[in-house]
Amino acid sequence: MMLNRLLPALAAGVALAGLVACGGPQGPTSELVVDYPLEGSMFPPGIVAPTFEWHDGNEEAASWLVTVEFDDGEPGLSLTVQGGPAPEPEIDATALRETNEIYRGTEYEQSAEHWTPTAEVWEEIKRRSVDRPATITFSGRAASAQDRTLSSGAVTISTSSDPVGAPLFYRDVPLMPSAGKTGVIQPLAKDALYMIKWRLRDLSKPESRVVLHNMPSCANCHSFSNDGTTMGMDVDGPQGDKGAYMIAPVEREMTVTDDEVISWNSFPEKDEGHKTIGFLSRISPDGKFAVTTLNEGLFVKNFLDYRFLQVFFPTYGILGWYSVDTEEMKALPGADDTEYVHCSPVWTPDGETLVFSRAKSFDPTENIKSEDDLPTYAGDPKEPRIQYDLCRMPFNGGKGGKPEPIAGASNNGMSNTFPKVSPDGKWLVWTKCENGLLMRPDGKLWIVPLAGGEPREMTCNTPLMNSWHSFSPNGRWMVFSSKSKSPYTQLFLTHIDENGNDTPAILIPNSTPANRASNLPEFLNASPDAIEHIDVHAVDHHRLFGQAKESLRREQFEEAAALARQAIEKEPGFARARVILGWSLFRLGKSQEGMQQFRVVLEQDPESSEAHHHLGLAMAELGRKEQAMRCFQQAVRYGPTNVEALKSLGLAYLNENDSEKALKAYERAHALAPEDAGALESLAVVLLNRGEVALALTHLEAVCRLQPEDADTRTFLSWCLATSPDGKIRDGERALAWAKEANALTKGGKATTLNGLAAAYAETGHWDEAVATAREAHRLAVEERLPDAPAYATRLRLYEQKKPYRHR
């Protein structure tokens, strides 16, 4: 019977060498290391076959005898395999950009041998290793002497009798950081949000299914009720209400409508002018409540490094809750103390208690004076320091109680985040790291009794980033995310017994294409086909709004107006779409009709920062400076974090020669958006006008780094560095470097750029290059009819006399 089960292995190219280990002459053997699975790994009964990986210390080994010995007293298995490189992974070509790459593994990983058992062989191994060890030995054989063992190494694994019992729902994300035209770095460009997918994975199947895609918004955190009948998920987007949150019944064909979406921005106690996002919301076990962080303030710094592209954590915020039955939204007493930040709340299985992270609240920008004070990578010591404690507190029907730090998960000199409670309410698993909470390279999973006690670092931890964990409904398996085998985050499983002991991590293969990341895994307590498709009609107006804003950016005003009208038809109270409509009409020459749209918004919401700002822009274009100034002031008053309004206010003050107020406006804008090149450039201009040249030039250099294709700023920067009369400011080498970059960008065909390059050559004593470059600059200036073309000739004569130019 066993032979019949193993015969299909022959068709897959695996030679059957016998039913027990072969004998034959043996000699000294070299070490063979099995890299994966790890010693002691445990697999669920329904999971697909893993790919074994090993390194053989004997270079003569050309094939391997794989023997499997079981603890059941029966003969084992013996197969001859060829090893070789890992199977070629699936690659999503649409997710490749200049800021990422196809990851092939380390040099060591690439040199490994690989073998994936056939489905028949794997089922036999699992069947005979349930709750007992199976020892798998790899013995290297030479091509010329198959009966001689050159090397040997083994690993012991087992199969649990505990099934996972539920499919996985998770997010599939391309890692494509980008810098927009303003220099602002985004983890994912707005026009690529549709590429995010949500998948459902039956672990007994080799691949997952996409159930949601083409969303116009960056939907993210999701959770399910204990019985798997209710789903909660953020459906916010950059073009709409970032506080939108859906609560909908789980169905095979889910169509989420407007009445199944709430907005955390309707919180009655929302801070004036603040737009809340509802950070890390969580549905209750019975599906009757949702809890989240409200009035939050965040420290965010994005990087172009796709491996760890963001630092992101709240520095202030309270917990609030929403009732599905009564539609009430209130702060949670005991977790509403503004002296603390409260975040990442989760429920105990009975719905009676909340566990959350808490730390002293603070302003993360207070010590940031310039770009040099900001972190440049995840884990940078320049990150603002925050370390959360885990607390528990009764929910008490929304009446709350007193937060109590959990012994073992608080006051330990580390940051304790992402708590998850086991379904039996006995164990608490969380991520511990040195600082912050999201995507931390040093994040490790720890376990402690929920009542508090002696914490233990979990066995399943991998070397790099361990988080986003979730218990299976039976509590015996936990899924988590890690970057240990690829910078494209992957999903792993570990088994946890009744005593809280866990096993080494096993990879869930083929969760996504190899150049996309898997995160936010949650088990759905339902059948694997419980969800076939999710269609979120509730965000159609956001999709139209996003298209309208993109048309406006391209100055396609007719199209922008039409799309904005469609968005308003679907959501009549969609104020942001009406602002787009108003500005499009204004740009089409319909000024009165456009301004009327702004007034309609302000009648509905007198505190709309966007409407005040765009009305101010309209007034400025019409030459009504005083009215424009009042509009900008109102926009900033009602939207203190509205960076665009702050920039407009700064320009208005600058036009009134009030450099002090302009400076304050631009400084606030820069502190809020350190990577907004426009704010930084404007700040530099004000500083130049005030005579603070050195600091201004430092900011301009930062602008150049943010905008790699900005030739004009590079030209201006090089000009200042080359021609300043102040010897402390002047720096010929820096000037020449920036001037050469500018000239490369303009391909040597722009008079102003060549003019700056000639000045830099002169300052560094490269007289021949200075003269030749200045001569060409003068020729182009005359050709382009520049009004200062005569000055080009004057500077040329200076360089011919081997004299540098100094501006006054």
Layout of secondary structure:
Blueprint: H1 2-6, H2 8-11, E1 15-18, E2 30-36, E3 42-43, E4 52-56, E5 61-70, E6 77-81, H3 107-110, E7 113-115, H4 119-128, E8 134-142, E9 149-159, E10 168-174, E11 178-179, E12 185-186, E13 197-201, E14 209-213, E15 222-224, E16 230-234, E17 244-249, E18 253-256, E19 261-263, E20 279-283, E21 289-302, E22 310-323, E23 329-331, E24 340-347, E25 353-360, E26 389-394, E27 404-405, E28 415-421, E29 427-433, E30 444-449, E31 456-457, E32 466-471, E33 477-482, E34 490-495, E35 506-507, E36 516-523, E37 533-536, H5 540-553, H6 557-570, H7 575-587, H8 591-604, H9 609-621, H10 625-638, H11 643-655, H12 659-672, H13 677-689, H14 693-706, H15 711-723, H16 732-745, H17 751-763, H18 767-783, H19 789-800
Parallel strand pairs: 2-9, 3-9, 18-37
Antiparallel strand pairs: 1-6, 2-4, 4-7, 5-6, 5-8, 8-9, 10-13, 10-36, 11-12, 13-14, 15-16, 16-17, 17-19, 20-21, 21-22, 22-23, 24-25, 25-26, 26-27, 28-29, 29-30, 30-31, 32-33, 33-34, 34-35
Helix pairs in contact: 5-6, 5-7, 6-7, 7-8, 7-9, 8-9, 9-10, 10-11, 11-12, 11-13, 12-13, 13-14, 14-15, 15-16, 15-17, 16-17, 17-18, 18-19
> Count of DSSP helices?
19
Radius of gyration: 31 Å
How much helical structure, as a percent, in the residues? 25-40%
The overall pLDDT, averaged over residues, is 90
Shape: globular
Number of strands: 37
Amino-to-carboxy terminus distance:
96 Å
Major sheet characteristics? 9 strands, mixed
- Low-pLDDT segments: 1-26
| Oligomer class | single chain
Structural class: alpha+beta
**Share of residues in strands:** 25-35%
